[in-house]
């Protein structure tokens, strides 16, 4: 039978984003993951084999298929399971195989080389015997000694030692050395040991505190609580079963999830396996890694997209050589090519940072599940506030759930007070700070303690709300908050494009105090400074932290107590502890609550829970104040009561009634063009193409729902206009097929010219 290689040609060039079929000559042993030489447009080019098959796609049935010219590697460059993963990624995120392969295997410009590993070292006694018995071997071992490294490239070794192949074989037979195939990146350079991902802030913090992770304070013994021990035992049982599992670990903040991770990783390593631990933010990786290094030594390595190319290559080489067996990193570390991967842990699995927002738009949770399905291992999802999707899957029995309900030691969850901002207005206080928050701030300053004030990320979406009764204008079709646009002064739904003018008086209470809402951190800082002129204040938001360095400097200054109050966005909610912080204030919970997104309530609950967890992490008791115009909203009330379950059941009912995920899936297509009229025309055309598909594919009523076209929340970004169409449906496979067909049709029409399409499955933000 004839066999064909599907070859991704010239993978470094993203414009040739396509694979071609070539005939495999009978005597050539071609495997998936090898590089081959083929001819393309009368040129000899290099390509990567992504598939070997006996069947050709039917459109190639009558075409002459050219042969593979040459094999460039003796063995696969990329493990076949990772190539399979790339295919899966391309399919599920609707991107090209080239794009997805670059993500799965970022070092495509590499090769496999043979290396020499020393098995014995020259001791004095050996030297004399060897020098006398076998001068060749002696010279060879001296070369290795001088190199002072654990391994040396075979070619370099032969050249330097000046030995024959026979001598080499003899050295191997006598047990002096062994040969090993290793992955080497082309254009590599020396990377100094110990420079990977060093974080100056964390380093200085650790020097102050002793090297302890966030949940591991000095003096903690490694005795597990009963809840922790049960969790470990249960996951170990799944690991030993040898089939793939996903398990949700729902533990309140401070319940000691890190201890559970540590014991599980220890188990996996003892059994000869490897593990990945993912954290949501790059800035957290070194802190976490340092803790795990105290447990597992130099088997631990950090991997994330912020590493310099050389550092990244070095990390990959170490992983592929089997020197590193525990990978700690952010989202992209989920692809780490560990040889014997058995366990992937996602800490804070609900965090939006696990979703990549450029192509391929994958979610690390999905990739982890796919990898562990391939390799029959366990995915552990840890969170105090699990994503609705994960918790719903646990409730329906699709995945298993373990719970930890108690904080470790003496610390308790801080009391949370909700302040009704409507009453502040009625009482005559027009400041963004309630009288209670002002009073509590002054108390902290008098006592020499510190406070943190949270705002939502720098708002680019504003909404219209009544400051007297809290009424918020939302879309009659989608139940999503309408976004106010100052140009045109209209309010718009970013899902269905429903448009209306803002009301002059509140439809609910007839108040005149209905207007658009949205405070930036800068304005809040200014007003605060006006209230407390003597107090030093620091601000941490996107504007003040364009570089990672600035971010660290501001946090370090706050930690050294150079300021009493830190005003910032949720970027300061994660990770680091500030023992002197005894008050946490949320200036306006409404900003998150009224984001134009069906996940707004879930985000609010998660954020408030996380923020509340910042207070009272040390011996000094903490307090939390949440200011809001919607004091009766379930997401806010439940967060104040630390009641996840109550929130979940309320929210899941809301999602079901309005047909939002996890009850449906949404695929969003974003259209970009420099000219507004072109993007609108394109969006209308795409809608028509999609609608035609409804008839062609014979969908039943309500099986597929097209929303829009509508302008995106960020209507104009980097000189480009942005419109979007969302498609909703229960079955993801149907949705993908539907989109694929519609997009193909759209590309054939004239309106598509110059338009960039950006497709996202189950987007996390609007
Ligand atoms: Zn009102
Ligand atoms: Zn709508």
Q: Which architecture name of the largest domain does CATH use?
A: 3-Layer(aba) Sandwich
* Anisotropy-based shape: globular
Give me the Rg, rounded. 29 Å
Beta-strand portion reads 15-25%
* Assigned CATH superfamily of the largest domain: P-loop containing nucleotide triphosphate hydrolases
Instruction: Work out the helix count.
Output: 23
Mean pLDDT: 82
Secondary structure category: alpha/beta
The strand order across the widest sheet is: 11-12-10-13-14-9-15
For the record, the count of structural domains works out to 6
Quickly name the level 1 CATH class of the largest domain.
Alpha Beta
- Using DSSP, what is the number of strands? 30
Biggest sheet architecture: 7 strands, parallel
Distance between the termini: 51 Å
Bound molecules: zinc ion
Helix content: 25-40%
What does this structure look like?
- The protein is α/β, with parallel strands linked by helices.
- It folds into six domains: 4-108, 3-Layer(aba) Sandwich (GIY-YIG endonuclease), CATH 3.40.1440; 111-185; 200-404, P-loop containing nucleotide triphosphate hydrolases (Rossmann fold, 3-Layer(aba) Sandwich), CATH 3.40.50; 416-459 and 519-655, Rossmann fold (3-Layer(aba) Sandwich), CATH 3.40.50; 462-517, no CATH class; 665-761, Alpha-Beta Plaits (2-Layer Sandwich), CATH 3.30.70.600.
- A seven-stranded parallel beta sheet has the order 11-12-10-13-14-9-15, with helices on both faces. Strands 16-26-25-17-24-23 form a six-stranded parallel beta sheet, sandwiched between helices.
- A hairpin with a 2-residue loop joins strand 3 (35-40) and strand 4.
- Helix 8 runs parallel beside helix 9 and helix 19 packs parallel to helix 20.
- The protein is globular.
- Mean pLDDT is 82; it is low at 11-16 and 185-221.
- One zinc ion (ZN) is lined by residues 466, 468-469, 471, 506, 508-509, 511.
């Amino acid at each position: 039978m004839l066999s064909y290689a599907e070859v991704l040609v010239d993978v470094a060039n993203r414009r040739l984003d396509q694979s071609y079929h070539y005939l495999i000559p009978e005597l050539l042993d071609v495997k998936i993951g090898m590089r081959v030489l083929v001819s393309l447009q009368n040129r000899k080019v290099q390509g990567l084999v992504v598939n070997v098959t006996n069947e050709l796609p039917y459109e190639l049935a009558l075409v002459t298929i050219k042969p593979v010219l040459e094999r460039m590697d003796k063995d696969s460059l990329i493990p076949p399971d990772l190539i399979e993963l790339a295919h899966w990624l391309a399919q599920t995120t609707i991107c090209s195989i080239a794009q997805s392969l670059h993500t799965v295997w970022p070092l495509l410009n590499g090769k496999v080389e043979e290396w020499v590993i020393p098995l014995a070292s020259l001791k004095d006694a050996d030297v004399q015997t060897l020098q006398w018995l076998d001068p060749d071997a002696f010279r060879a071992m001296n070369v290795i000694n001088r190199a002072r490294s654990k391994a040396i490239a075979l070619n370099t070794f032969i050249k330097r030692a000046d030995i024959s192949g026979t001598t080499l074989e003899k050295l191997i037979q006598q047990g002096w050395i062994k040969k090993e195939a290793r992955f080497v990146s082309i254009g590599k350079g020396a990377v100094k040991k110990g420079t990977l991902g060093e974080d100056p802030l964390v380093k200085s913090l650790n020097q102050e505190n002793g090297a302890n992770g966030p949940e591991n304070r000095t003096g903690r013994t490694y005795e597990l609580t009963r809840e922790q021990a049960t969790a470990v035992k249960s996951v170990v049982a799944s690991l030993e079963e040898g089939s793939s599992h996903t398990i949700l670990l729902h533990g309140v903040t401070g319940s000691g999830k890190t201890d559970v991770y540590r014991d599980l990783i220890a188990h996996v390593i003892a059994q000869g396996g490897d593990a990945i631990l993912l954290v949501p933010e790059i800035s957290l990786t070194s802190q976490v890694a340092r803790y795990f290094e105290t447990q597992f030594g130099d088997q631990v390595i950090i991997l994330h997209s912020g590493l310099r190319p050389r550092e990244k290559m070095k990390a990959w080489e170490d992983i592929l050589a089997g020197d590193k067996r525990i990978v700690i990193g952010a989202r992209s570390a989920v692809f780490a090519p560990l040889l014997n991967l058995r366990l992937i842990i996602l800490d804070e699995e609900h965090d939006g940072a696990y979703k990549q927002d450029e192509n391929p738009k994958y979610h690390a949770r999905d990739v982890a599940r796919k990898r562990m399905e391939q390799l029959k291992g366990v995915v552990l999802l840890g969170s105090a506030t699990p994503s609705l999707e994960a918790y719903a899957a646990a409730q329906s029995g699709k995945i298993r759930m373990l719970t930890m309900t108690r904080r470790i030691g003496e610390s308790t969850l801080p009391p949370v007070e909700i302040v009704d901002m409507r009453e502040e207005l009625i009482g005559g206080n027009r400041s963004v700070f309630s009288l209670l928050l002002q009073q509590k701030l002054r108390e902290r300053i008098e006592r020499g303690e510190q406070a943190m004030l949270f705002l939502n990320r720098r708002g680019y979406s504003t909404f219209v709300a009544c400051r007297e009764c809290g009424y918020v204008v939302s879309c009659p079709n989608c139940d999503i908050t309408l976004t106010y646009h100052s140009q045109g002064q209209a309010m718009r739904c970013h899902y269905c494009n429903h448009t209306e003018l803002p009301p002059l008086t509140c439809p609910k209470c007839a108040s005149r105090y209905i207007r658009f809402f949205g405070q930036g951190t800068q304005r809040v800082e200014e007003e605060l400074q006006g209230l407390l002129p003597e107090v030093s204040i620091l601000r941490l938001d996107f504007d003040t932290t364009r570089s990672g360095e600035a971010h660290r400097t501001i946090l370090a200054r706050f930690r050294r107590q150079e300021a009493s109050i830190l005003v910032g966005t949720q970027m300061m909610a994660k990770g680091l502890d500030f023992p002197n912080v005894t008050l946490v204030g949320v200036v306006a919970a409404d900003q998150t609550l009224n984001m134009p997104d069906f996940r707004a309530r879930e985000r609010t609950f998660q954020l408030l829970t996380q923020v509340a967890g910042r207070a009272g992490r040390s011996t000094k008791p903490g307090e939390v104040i949440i200011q809001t115009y919607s004091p009766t909203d379930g997401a806010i009330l439940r967060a104040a009561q630390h009641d996840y379950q109550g929130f979940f059941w309320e929210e899941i009912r809301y999602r079901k009634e309005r047909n939002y995920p996890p009850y449906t899936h949404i695929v969003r297509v974003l259209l970009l063009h420099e000219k507004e009229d072109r993007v609108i025309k394109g969006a209308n055309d795409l809608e028509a193409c999609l609608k035609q598909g409804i008839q062609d594919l014979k969908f039943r009523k309500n099986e597929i729902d097209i929303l829009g076209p509508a302008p995106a929340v960020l209507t104009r970004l980097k000189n480009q206009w942005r419109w979007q169409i969302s498609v909703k449906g229960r079955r993801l496979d149907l949705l993908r097929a539907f989109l694929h067909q519609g997009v193909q049709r759209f590309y054939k029409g004239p309106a598509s010219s110059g338009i960039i399409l950006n497709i996202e499955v189950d987007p996390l933000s609007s």
